[in-house]
Design goal:
heterodimer, A: mainly beta, Porin, 12-stranded antiparallel β-barrel, 13 strands, about 60% strand, B: mainly beta, Immunoglobulin-like, 2 domains, 5-stranded mixed beta sheet, 4-stranded antiparallel beta sheet, 17 strands, about 10% helix
Chain lengths: ~290, ~220
C-alpha cells in the first residue's frame, strides 16, 4: 500500500509539475470499447457461472524520454472505467500510473530489447469488497525479426491489496481480493498488411485466484479467505484459493490511421485452483484506440 | 577595326552558346505499376551508353528533414559524393542511422541540425532509420550518373540538360519487385530533342513497421 502511494506521488509530481526533461515526447492515449467475460465468477459449476458485458473507457497521458540512443523512459498516468450491463457491483473506476524503462541492445529495429516496468493502480468498485490498490512489476525481453514480425517474453509479479473485507468466519481473512501472483508470458505479433496486425499471447500465472460460488464446503476447506459477494446474489461467497491459470489469447488490430486502430481480442483462460476445481473463462473485447 | 572584331567575336560566342543549348535534350519518363497506377518516388537514372560521365564541377548538397517523426522526403536521389544534412524539425530527438553497404553511419541522438553532413560517396541504395522511432524509414538513392529525377504523384519525371547521345535508362523504387538492372532500356537521344520512355513495374507491399497503436493484451491476466 505504501509503495503504491509512493509511486503515485512520484508519477503525479513529475507529470503535474511539468518537471519533465526537455525534448520529452508527450502522448495521450484514449481507448473505448466493450468486453465480454463468460465466467466472471471464476466458477466451476454451471449454476454458479455468470457472464456479462461491459463498456470500457481508458485515458492515459504521459511522456517518453530518450535517455540515450539506446535507453528510454516512459512515465504515464491514467484513469479507466468499466461499466457492466448486469452485475453493477463490478463497475469500476480506477486511476493508475505506469513507469517503463527500455533498453535496446544495439542499433536498428532488429536490436533485442529489455524493458522493466512498474504499474500501480487505485481501484474503486461499486461492490466495495473489490476495492483495492495494485502493484505490478514487469520484465520483458523482445526482438523484432523483420518489419512485420516481432516477439517477446517476460515475467510479471502482481500484488493486489484489498482495502475492505470483513471476516465472516473467525480466523479466516475476509480480504479475498488481497491476492498476488507471478506470470510468465510469451507473445508475438505479425503485420499481415499495412493495416492488419495479428498476434498471439500465451501466459501461465501461479498465485491466488478468487472464485465466487454459492456456499461450497469443499472450496471452503481449500480457501484461505472468504467473504460474501453480493454482486452475484445474496447467497454467493467469494473464496480465495491458490491456482494456476493458463491463458491463450489472440488479437487483431486494424489501423484506421497512424494514430488510431480498431482492436479485437479473444482470450481463453483455464484455471486449476486445487484438486477437483477447474474452471474456464473466455474473454472477448473490441477496443477503439486513439493515440495523440 | 577593333570594335568590329570584338562584336564579331561576341556574336560567335553567343551563337555557339545558343547552339550548345539547343543541343541539350530531355528524357520524359513515366512509371506505372502493374495495375496502371502512377508510381510516385521512383528514381529514373540515365547513364551514357559510352560510359563517359562528366561529373559536375561543384560539390552538391542535399537536405533530408525529419518532420512529424518521419523522413521528409521519404525518397531522395543524390549524386555520389553529395553531402546530405539531416535537420531535425521535431521537438523530440532522433538518432539517424544506416546499415546499408553503400553508407554505414550513425548520427547520435540529436535535436536541431547536426554539425556535420554525411557524405554519400558510393553508388547504391541507403536505407535510413531512427533508433528511437522504429517506424521511421527513408531511402537515399546514390547515383553514379548525374542524370536522374524522381517521379511525382503523376508518375512522371523529367531528366533535363542531357547531351544528345545514346543512354541506358533504368528505374528504381523502394518497393520494386525484381532488380533495377531488369528495368534497363536503351534509348538513342542523339537525333531528337525530347525522348519519352515508360515503364510498368511490379511493386511489393511496403515493408514498414506499423506506427498505429495496438491493444494486444486481451484477457484478465
Amino acid at each position: 500500500m505504501k509503495s503504491v502511494r509512493c509511486f503515485f506521488l512520484l508519477s503525479a509530481g513529475l507529470l503535474l509539475a511539468g518537471n519533465t526533461p526537455a525534448r520529452a515526447e508527450w502522448f495521450v492515449d484514449l481507448a473505448a470499447g466493450t468486453r465480454y467475460d463468460s465466467n466472471l465468477t471464476a466458477a466451476q459449476e454451471r449454476a454458479d457461472i455468470r457472464a456479462d458485458i461491459a463498456a470500457t473507457l481508458t485515458a492515459t497521458g504521459g511522456f517518453f524520454y530518450a535517455l540515450s540512443g539506446a535507453d528510454g523512459l516512459t512515465l504515464s498516468a491514467g484513469a479507466r472505467s468499466e461499466l457492466y450491463h448486469r452485475f453493477h457491483g463490478l463497475n469500476e473506476t480506477a486511476i493508475d500510473a505506469n513507469g517503463v524503462y527500455k533498453h535496446k541492445f544495439g542499433l536498428g529495429y532488429a536490436a533485442p530489447w529489455l524493458s522493466l516496468g512498474i504499474f500501480a493502480s487505485h481501484e474503486n468498485y461499486t461492490g466495495s469488497i473489490r476495492d483495492s490498490d495494485r502493484l505490478e512489476w514487469r520484465a520483458e525481453v523482445g526482438k523484432r525479426f523483420s518489419e512485420a514480425f516481432d516477439a517477446s517474453f517476460g515475467g510479471m509479479y502482481a500484488r493486489r491489496y484489498a482495502r475492505n473485507g470483513e471476516a465472516v468466519v473467525p480466523g479466516i481473512s475476509g480480504k479475498v481480493f488481497d491476492v498476488q501472483g507471478q506470470t510468465a508470458f510469451a507473445r508475438a505479433g505479425y503485420a499481415v498488411s499495412e493495416q492488419l496486425q495479428v498476434g498471439a499471447r500465451l501466459s501461465i500465472r501461479r498465485g491466488d485466484v478468487v472464485s465466487t460460488t454459492r456456499q461450497n464446503f469443499e472450496i471452503f476447506q481449500a480457501s484461505d479467505a472468504i467473504a460474501p459477494d453480493p454482486t452475484f446474489g445474496d447467497d454467493f461467497f467469494a473464496y480465495r484459493l491458490r491456482g494456476t491459470t493458463q491463458t491463450a489469447s489472440l488479437f487483431l488490430s486494424w489501423a484506421l490511421s497512424e494514430r488510431a486502430s480498431l482492436n479485437l481480442g479473444y482470450a481463453d483462460e483455464r484455471t486449476r485452483a486445487y484438486e477437483g476445481l477447474d474452471y474456464r473463462g473466455r474473454v472477448a473485447n473490441v477496443t477503439l484506440v486513439y493515440s495523440y | 577595326m577593333v570594335p568590329m572584331q570584338f562584336f564579331s567575336f561576341a556574336a560567335l560566342v553567343v551563337l555557339f552558346a545558343a547552339g550548345a543549348a539547343a543541343q541539350t535534350i530531355e528524357i520524359a519518363a513515366s512509371v506505372k505499376d502493374d495495375k496502371g497506377k502512377p508510381v510516385v518516388d521512383a528514381i529514373v537514372v540515365a547513364v551514357p551508353a559510352d560510359g563517359v560521365i562528366r561529373p559536375p564541377s561543384r560539390a552538391r548538397e542535399a537536405i533530408i528533414d525529419q518532420i512529424n517523426r518521419e523522413f521528409e522526403p521519404r525518397v531522395t536521389a543524390v549524386l555520389a559524393g553529395t553531402a546530405v544534412i539531416f535537420p531535425n524539425h521535431d521537438d523530440v530527438r532522433h538518432q539517424v542511422y544506416s546499415f546499408s553497404p553503400a553508407k554505414r553511419f550513425e548520427l547520435p541522438l540529436y535535436a536541431g541540425v547536426p554539425s556535420q553532413p554525411i557524405v554519400f560517396d558510393r553508388p547504391g541504395v541507403v536505407v535510413l532509420g531512427c533508433n528511437i522511432h522504429d517506424w521511421m524509414v527513408g531511402y537515399v538513392y546514390v547515383s553514379d550518373s548525374p542524370y536522374f529525377a524522381k517521379t511525382e504523384k503523376d508518375g512522371k519525371a523529367l531528366l533535363t540538360d542531357l547531351s544528345p547521345r545514346a543512354y541506358v535508362v533504368r528505374v528504381w523504387h523502394p518497393q520494386l519487385e525484381g532488380t533495377e538492372e531488369a528495368t534497363k532500356k536503351n534509348i538513342d537521344a542523339s537525333r531528337s530533342r525530347s525522348v519519352e520512355v515508360a515503364w510498368t513495374i511490379k511493386l511489393k507491399p511496403e515493408a514498414r513497421i506499423r506506427r498505429a497503436p495496438v491493444a494486444d493484451r486481451p484477457g484478465r491476466y
